[in-house]
Design goal:
about 290 residues, alpha+beta, D-amino Acid Aminotransferase, Chain A, domain 1, D-amino Acid Aminotransferase, Chain A, domain 2, six-stranded antiparallel beta sheet, 8 helices, binds pyridoxal-5'-phosphate
Length: about 290
C-alpha cells in the first residue's frame, strides 16, 4: 500500500514512496542525525520558531552543520506545506550527517542530508481522550543525561524502543522511564505531567527528559490561568499518589493517563487536564 505524503529531498519534492537516501548515510548506519516533528494547521506550521530553535541547538551540540540557514529552511518547509494536498498535517524535518565511508567518523561525511516529510495528521485516539491510557514504569532506564543529553533530539530512539517493547508485552499503551537515580524522566515519546492539590508538576530535562515544546506551552498556559507550576524531580511515588497524570507531545498533543502500574486515577480525564486541553485548543485557533 502506498504511504501517503510527500518528501523534500535532494532539492526536490517527490512522493513519499519515491523518496530515497543512500545506504551509506550515517543517519541510517549510526543514527547520526537530528529531527523535529512539527504540526501544521491551515497550511501554517504550529510553534515553528521554538522547533527551529531546538533544531539549531541540537545541531550545535552534535557539531552538525545545518544544510540550510534558518530563513532558507523555513522557506523550504513552507514550500513543502504548500505543495501538500492537505491543509493540516505533520512535518518530520530530519537532518542526517550524510553519506560517508563505513566507520563512525563524522568528519568523513562532507554533506549533511536534509529530509522534510509531510504526512497526514494522526488525530489522537478518541477513546484515549475520553478514558485515558494505561501505562507502566519500564525496567529499562533512560540513558543518563551526562552520557547523552536528552535535550538533543537525535535519531537514536533504541532506549525508548526497549521501554515501548515492555509496554507492548504488558498490554498497555505507553511506558514511563526512570533515570539511574530512580526519578521519573518522561514517556517514550512524550513529557509527563502530574496534578496534585490543583498544582501542576513536570520533570526537569536534567533528570532525563526532552525539553518538550508542548510541555513549555502547557506550563505557560497553566501560568496564564493562575495554576501553580513546578518543574522538579518526581519519584514513582509521586506519580502513583497524584490526583491526575497526563502526557504531552507534538504528535500526542495531550493524553490523559488513567493507570500507572495498576494504580488507577479516579479522576481521568481530570479537571485540570480538561482545562489545559481547552486552553491548548484555543491557542491553536489563536495562532492561525
Ligand atoms: C522523547 C520525547 N519526549 C518528549 C517529546 C515531546 O516533545 P514535543 O512536545 O517538543 O513534541 C518527544 C517528541 O518527539 C519525544 O520524542
Amino acid at each position: 500500500m502506498p504511504v501517503e505524503g510527500i518528501c523534500w529531498i535532494n532539492n526536490e519534492i517527490v512522493r513519499l514512496e519515491d523518496a530515497r537516501i543512500s545506504v551509506m548515510d550515517h543517519g541510517l548506519l549510526y543514527g547520526d542525525g537530528i529531527f523535529e516533528g512539527i504540526r501544521f494547521y491551515n497550511n501554517k506550521a504550529f510553534l515553528l520558531e521554538p522547533h527551529l530553535e531546538r533544531l539549531v541547538a541540537s545541531a550545535k551540540a552534535l557539531a552538525l552543520e545545518l544544510p540550510q540557514g534558518i530563513p532558507e529552511l523555513s522557506t523550504t518547509l513552507q514550500s513543502v506545506i504548500k505543495e501538500y494536498k492537505n491543509h493540516h498535517g505533520y512535518i518530520r524535518l530530519i537532518i542526517t550527517r550524510g553519506k560517508g565511508p563505513l566507520g563512525i567518523n563524522p568528519a568523513l561525511c562532507k554533506t549533511p542530508e536534509l529530509i522534510i516529510i509531510a504526512s497526514p495528521l494522526n488525530m489522537s485516539d478518541e477513546q484515549a481522550q475520553k478514558k485515558g491510557i494505561r501505562t507502566i514504569i519500564a525496567s529499562t532506564r533512560r540513558i543518563p543525561a551526562d552520557c547523552l543529553d536528552p535535550r538533543i533530539k537525535s535519531l537514536n530512539y533504541l532506549n525508548a524502543i526497549l521501554a515501548r517493547i515492555e509496554a507492548n508485552n504488558a498490554g498497555v499503551e505507553e511506558a514511563l522511564m526512570l533515570n539511574q537515580q530512580g526519578y521519573i524522566t518522561e514517556g517514550t515519546v512524550d513529557n509527563i505531567f502530574i496534578v496534585n492539590n490543583g498544582e501542576l508538576y513536570t520533570t526537569p530535562s536534567i533528570d532525563g527528559s526532552l525539553a518538550g515544546i508542548t510541555r513549555d506551552l502547557i506550563l505557560n498556559l497553566a501560568n496564564d490561568s493562575g495554576i501553580n507550576t513546578h518543574v522538579k524531580s518526581l519519584a514513582a511515588y509521586d506519580i502513583y499518589a497524584a490526583d491526575e497524570c497526563f502526557l504531552t507531545g507534538t504528535g500526542a498533543e495531550l493524553i490523559p493517563v488513567n493507570e500507572v502500574d495498576g494504580r488507577k486515577y479516579s479522576d481521568c480525564p481530570g479537571n485540570i487536564f480538561k482545562q489545559l486541553k481547552n486552553q491548548y485548543q484555543n491557542s491553536l485557533i489563536q495562532r492561525q
